[in-house]
Amino acid sequence: MSRLTSTLLFALLALRATAQTQPPSGCDPTWGNTTCLDNPALGTTLDYSFNNTLSEMDPQYFNVTAGASLISFGNDGAEMSILKAGDSVTVSTQFYILEGRAEIVMQAAKGVGIISTIILLSDTLDEIDWEILGGNETHVSNNWYGLGNTSQHNGEYPLLAGAMDTFHNYTIDWNQDRLQWIADGQMVRELKGAGKGLYPQTPSVIRFGIWAAGDPSLPQGTRDWAGGDTDYSKGPFTMKVKSVKITDAATNVTSYTYEDTSGEYKSVKANPGDSKAFLAIHKLTSAQKAAASWSHLSKTAKIAIASSVLGVLLVIIIVYTYVCITQRKKGRAEKAIADREWERHESELMEYKRQMQKGGFAVSHLGSGEVRY
């Protein structure tokens, strides 16, 4: 890398450090803050396509942090545009992944100084990215940082022609042993795992969007890295996203917790259960949701609920037993009355038969209308 390139890259990184000092959740556990909230997990795979039937980014999965009014939907998917100075679009996932795979099928925006990007960013400011420079017709760029240390010079520029003319698949495949950047199914770069600060290793959201690094208000070094000043009169500059596919390496996980302030992989605990994203993606039945909710309860809560249910069942059993006994007694009484009535009828019938045998009743003739007794 030449001295000039290094100087320009350093200027860009300094700018990015200023712009990205805030972690996605607003709380960086390495600052010594032990009250950071858990990171909601994906815990499954989200395979999401954008088309002209949509009117907004689905809030179950995405949060538009900048430029919501600059997003439209058409036959080519989600279209994100820069119309004038100061415009940018950023879409972030509502969930984090800890290792896994992130794919975006996009057509980058064409225009000097315009950057189309997909980024994995953690609360400790670990970062992995693809950045497509709208003025570079032959190469694309990828990069990474550990713990927000933007003094690291980790950018590379693999060959890829036509990034602004057609759709390409940009993939990041990440685990604790190695990190791969893949373009249209071909691995173009691999990074081996290392210690904290030297390798991204903490739960990350996925962001994608468009911004103008060639805006005349930005430092000269940044604008040079981006390919020059952006001429907004040549806009609009539009990035098109056909689909995203994101896989969390962990399953049966509802959130991630930092158990200390080290920012190391081993400090992160995966909490078991079905995440909100998992429930939304798989649209579980009421019974399945109830089972999932039950699995998330503490042992004490489960015992309390079980005791309450058993108490209700006991009351039901007691009431049922009482009703059965009462009905049985009533049935016995009714049977006794019926038996006595039957015996009375039997006695009357026997008496009638005895009278008949004794000639107590005689019929002299039929048909005359006269009967003699």
Characteristic key phrases:
disordered N terminus; eight-stranded antiparallel beta sheet; alpha+beta; six-stranded antiparallel beta sheet; elongated; 29% strand; 373 residues; 5 helices; 17 strands
Describe the protein.
By secondary structure, the protein is of the alpha+beta class. The chain has 5 helices and 17 strands.
Portion in beta strands: 25-35%
Q: What is the CA-based Rg, rounded? A: 39 Å
Poorly predicted runs are 1-20, 361-373
DSSP strand tally: 17
Secondary structure topology:
Blueprint: H1 3-19, E1 39-40, E2 45-49, E3 62-66, E4 71-74, E5 77-82, E6 89-93, E7 100-107, E8 114-122, E9 127-133, E10 141-145, E11 168-174, E12 178-183, E13 186-192, E14 204-212, H2 220-225, E15 237-248, E16 253-258, E17 268-272, H3 276-282, H4 286-296, H5 299-357
Antiparallel strand pairs: 1-16, 2-15, 3-6, 4-5, 5-15, 6-14, 7-11, 7-15, 8-9, 8-14, 9-10, 11-12, 12-13, 16-17
